[in-house]
Write a structure and sequence with these properties.
Oligomer: single chain
Distance between the termini: 69 Å
Radius of gyration: 21 Å
Number of strands: 2
Shape: globular
Strand content: 5-15%
Number of helices: 5
Length: about 130
Amino acid sequence: MDAVPEPHTGWTFLTNHARVLATIADNPDVRIRHIAAHCLLTERAVQKIISELERDGYLSHKREGRTNTYRIEPGKLLRHPAEAGLPVAALIGLLVQDQAQRDTASERLRATRSPIQVESSPVRTESA
């Protein structure tokens, strides 16, 4: 049995729902176990997220033997008023990239990073 991932503290840019959806977009035949491992969630949490996404019409699935094949509804609009009119396909397009592209992008980012140098300036104090 897989170990439960350590809990994350603090905030992140993406919700677990977005992570699960992006993982499914990468592979519509992916197993819940693999989604959980990729997103660092428990299988139970992934099942709940998939259920919520299906309930709200963002996702559907078809059972094929022992495998589920998921289908994302690309035209479904995002829920938050700040993204009014933006379809889920736009979000998925930003999140889903081929692994080779991710590796290349990471390598380029590492190559452009240089140590931050902070110039020291004397601290001024006013005497009374």
